[in-house]
Design goal:
Helix content: 55-70%
Strand order of the largest sheet: 1-2
Radius of gyration: 24 Å
Structural class: mainly alpha
CATH architecture: Up-down Bundle
CATH class: Mainly Alpha
Number of strands: 2
Strand content: under 5%
Shape: flat
Largest sheet: 2 strands, antiparallel
Distance between the termini: 94 Å
């Protein structure tokens, strides 16, 4: 009786440990094989949003070569912003938080987000310049869909918005 109870406990322990090990491995695999695009879409690390366009092989190679350093820089900046957000939460936790320090941290987060948004817009314009008209439409439709999760927004005419006098 004692021997069978011991075998049962060891088997249950082994199954529990194996389950934890497999779960941890799966989580590591998931985190190491995905990234979040600048538009908030979770994608596999070796996939790019622009691959959904009908690109010529030379266009695809050029975009991939530009996208890798851009992606790394955006990820680095995103991590900086996340660290500042954690800093902000820590400041807010104090019994008597320093409002000036909170405001300064918020301003710093906003500045970093603005710089990152300008980088993204510049990158988008760089990509746009290498696409033909049809590819540009598809490109901005993809971006719009991934940014908003909806269909097409009203876009200005191709020659730009009308100037009001």
């Amino acid at each position: 009786m004692k021997n069978s109870l011991l075998k049962f406990v060891l088997a249950a322990s082994l199954i529990l440990n194996l389950t934890i090990f497999v779960t941890a491995g799966y989580r590591y695999y998931q985190q190491s094989h995905t990234w979040v695009s600048p538009f908030g879409k979770v994608m596999e690390k070796d996939k790019f949003l622009f691959q959904e366009l009908s690109l010529k092989p030379d266009q695809l190679a050029t975009m991939k070569s530009k996208a890798m350093p851009f992606r790394a820089e955006i990820d680095r900046r995103r991590q900086e912003i996340d660290a500042k957000r954690k800093e902000l939460v820590a400041l807010l936790r104090y019994q008597n938080p320093d409002k000036k320090e909170i405001d300064a941290t918020i301003k710093e987060i906003s500045g970093k987000q603005e710089v990152m948004q300008r980088m993204i817009a510049g990158h988008m314009l760089e990509i746009k310049s290498s696409l033909d008209d049809g590819q540009q439409r598809k490109f901005f439709d993809l971006i719009e869909h991934n940014m908003t999760g909806t269909g097409q927004m009203l876009c200005p005419p191709v020659d730009g918005p009308k100037q009001s006098h």
